[in-house]
Write a structure and sequence with these properties.
mainly alpha, 91% helix
């Protein structure tokens, strides 16, 4: 049963790091079991040659299995134990939880920043609207001031023209008087 269980394991778990070692163990155990069975058969029927062939096959299977197992032991020692894997998994789960919490904080901060940006943008739009209104009022006031200045200037120039005209008339009428006097 052991060789069949090993073959089943290798077929189902193709990702095993040392699957070939399980196959060699399966062959070796099958050969050992056959050797024991042949020892029982040889008690009643003396088939020594077949018993010898099976023992030779067992020996041939054991040599590469033992040699490759010796080469495999240093690599197998470096494999982490189940407890080490559990500790590593717990640490990773903790890290994942911390990252999720940090990501949620980042999302919250981003939402707050977006809200603030929207508020500030609205405030800027309102300030721009008020500035535009004030600019329009100032433009209107400047136009009114120009018209007033033009009218005031015209209104102030008209009496001066009358005074100038009267001065010119007086100067013409009295020009002869001033020329004859020394």
């Amino acid at each position: 049963m052991i060789p069949l269980a090993l073959v089943y394991l290798v077929r189902k778990r193709r990702d095993l790091a040392f699957h070939w070692m399980f196959v060699l163990f399966g062959i070796f155990i099958l050969a050992c079991g056959t050797t024991h069975a042949m020892s029982i058969v040889t008690l009643w029927h003396p088939v020594y040659r077949l018993d010898g062939v099976i023992k030779a096959i067992t020996a041939l299977a054991s040599v590469p299995t033992a040699f490759l197992l010796l080469r495999l032991v240093p690599q197998a020692i470096t494999l982490p134990s189940p407890e080490q894997l559990r500790v590593a998994n717990r640490a990773l789960e903790h890290e994942v939880l911390e990252r999720k919490i940090a990501e949620e904080r980042v999302r919250t901060i981003n939402a707050e920043l977006e809200r603030r940006v929207a508020e500030r943008t609205q405030e800027l739009h309102e300030a721009n609207r008020q500035l535009n209104e004030a600019n329009q009022r100032l433009t209107t006031m400047n136009e009114d001031l120009k018209h007033f200045a033009y009218a005031a200037s015209h209104d102030l120039q008209e009496p001066l023209r009358v005074v100038i005209t009267f001065n010119q008339l007086l100067a013409r009428d009295f020009a002869d008087l001033f020329r004859n006097k020394p």
